[in-house]
């Protein structure tokens, strides 16, 4: 075997979603394989072997000098976490708004008054491409400290040609997977005219955005874009070769679930307001339901019907929704805690939802989300004697080390 090999040895517990299928649904979502006293052998960027320490000699010569070793005694290993829904391309903050909300102002009312998303649009436009690149890179490091080794990030705080494209380039430059959220809000210069904004975005931004991004996303909600506008935007994006995502049912059901199914979207995300019909429809479909409990918590919204979705057989993923307004939270472990305490998912279901199923939403489940031979060598070592601390240790300092593409990465 040539190339650099890295042996992570003496792992207290190694936990990985079982099997090779994606997405995992129903009972399979909670099928986690746990190996005590384990190793992971990485060859270059790929996992070569996973097993128990007592079987190590079957894959490694005792005097193999080319192997770099990482001692994982007292630690647990899980796959690198995959955050399939973030808005990491933003500048500035919304701490003033946060304080106003704490005193009783509503998120939707602040948005309607030109604050909210539009406040971040002003700050992001003013940052310039260099400022934006620095911001996304900073956010990437925050995510990595919480065990996120793959992240998707959306544009959507530019809403003009230059800043939307700069956002997508900044996400790529930081190693993220870019989604063009061209239909996030109507920018102030168009004075609420969503149709005119879509004319502009589809004619002037889409052709270049489609070269940089992998997917397109729309905020389908009262006060943002309606179902007809969302259909128009997504259909054009699909013709340009982009995969489709939707922000839907965050505050109210406006037809996002049927539209996602009709258009063959990869996911519909949020779903705090989804009722039984939406749950049933998703369960029969290939659209993944992306749950964002940090956003529901941050805004004091009801939690999405996670248990009903999983029990009905829907494909479910878990993500942070990291953004400055509705979820200033980059921690997937915290989302796993919320999944266990608020969504009634087991730690095993939470793990699969932010590894394999999140990788599926990003079209990468063949390479990401599991600790098994042939998968990318992305793993997280937890400072914990049991891997379920991932959900149990609420906001704990849990991530001891991260290995990305077979190389240990400095966290601080
Ligand atoms: O997913 N809901 C729409 N967009 C983001 C929030 C954006 C913001 O408040 O800046 C979300 O929650
Ligand atoms: Fe979002």
Strand element count: 16
What CATH architecture label of the largest domain applies?
Answer: Alpha-Beta Barrel
Q: And the CATH topology of the largest domain? A: TIM Barrel
Rg computed from alpha carbons, rounded to a whole number of angstroms = 21 Å
* SSE pattern, N- to C-terminal: EEEEEEHHHEHEHEHEHEHEHHEHHHEHEE
Small molecules (ligands, ions, cofactors) in the structure: N-(iminomethyl)-L-glutamic acid, fe (iii) ion
Runs in which pLDDT lies below 50 for 5 or more consecutive residues are none
Query: Structurally, how many domains make up the residues?
Result: 2
Main CATH class of the largest domain: Alpha Beta
Sheet/helix structural class: alpha/beta
Q: How confident is the prediction overall: mean pLDDT? A: 96
How would you sum up this structure, described in words?
With 412 residues, the protein is α/β, with parallel strands linked by helices. The chain has two domains: 5-79 and 369-409, Urease, subunit C, domain 1, CATH 2.30.40.10; 82-330, Metal-dependent hydrolases (TIM Barrel, Alpha-Beta Barrel), CATH 3.20.20.140. It contains 14 helices and 16 strands. It has helices at residues 95-102, 107-112, 117-145, 161-173, 194-212, 227-239, 256-263, 276-283, 293-299, 306-312, 332-341, 347-353, 356-361, 389-392, and strands at 5-17, 32-43, 46-52, 67-71, 76-79, 81-83, 148-154, 177-183, 215-218, 243-248, 267-270, 288-291, 316-318, 379-382, 399-404, 407-409. The strands form two sheets. Strands 1, 2, 3, 4, 5, 14, 15 and 16 form an eight-stranded mixed sheet that branches. An eight-stranded parallel sheet has the order 6-7-8-9-10-11-12-13. α3 (117-145) runs parallel beside α4 (161-173), α5 packs parallel to α6 (227-239) and α8 packs parallel to α10. The longest helix has 29 residues, at 117-145. The radius of gyration is 21 Å and the shape is globular. It starts with a strand and ends with a strand. N-(iminomethyl)-L-glutamic acid is lined by residues 87, 116-117, 120, 219, 247, 250, 295, 321, 323-326. Residues 85, 87, 247, 321 line the site of fe (iii) ion.
